[in-house]
Amino acid sequence: MSSFLRRQSIRTDIQNDDDIRILVHTFYGKVQDDERLGYIFNEFAEVDWEHHLPNMVDFWSNLLFQSGRYKGRPFRQHLPLPIQKSDFHLWYNLFTETVDCCFAGERAEHAKEMAGKIAASFSLRMDIEKENQPNLISHDL
Ligand code: HEM
Question: What is the number of domains present in the chain?
Answer without folding.
Answer: 1
